[in-house]
Design a protein that fits this description.
With 103 residues, the protein is α+β, with helices and mostly antiparallel strands. The protein contains one helix and five strands; from the N terminus they run H-E-E-E-E-E. The chain has a domain at 29-78: Roll (SH3 type barrels). This is Putative dna-directed rna polymerase subunit beta.
């Protein structure tokens, strides 16, 4: 049985391996595909609730709250201008050996 620390490290490695940040910006009235758990539905962004949370309206007038990872632009997203000074964040690094990474 793995220790809590081992299980946490394995989960973090999996998240790093399969994750990634999406640098897209959505605005009001942008057309997107919204995850509906059974299939994706076309929707329109009607409000930005937080950094990565939006309210969208589907074509059948349903209102949903969705996280950014549940939305895909139907048209190409707008370009984002990033202030280089605001993106400088100190990162903690840790060496992970090949035996610690599992598929």
């Amino acid at each position: 049985l793995p220790t809590l620390k081992e299980a946490l490290l394995k989960r973090q490695v999996t998240m790093i391996k399969h994750g990634g940040s999406r640098n897209i910006a959505l605005g009001c009235n942008d057309r997107v595909w919204a995850k509906d758990y059974s299939e994706n539905q076309p929707a329109t962004v009607i409000e930005k609730l937080g950094e990565q949370t939006y309210t969208v309206k589907t074509t059948d007038d349903k209102i949903w709250r969705r996280h950014l990872d549940q939305l895909w632009p139907i048209t190409p997203p707008r370009q984002i201008r990033v202030n280089e000074e605001s993106t400088k964040v100190p990162l903690e690094t840790k060496t992970i050996t090949g035996s610690q990474i599992q598929s």
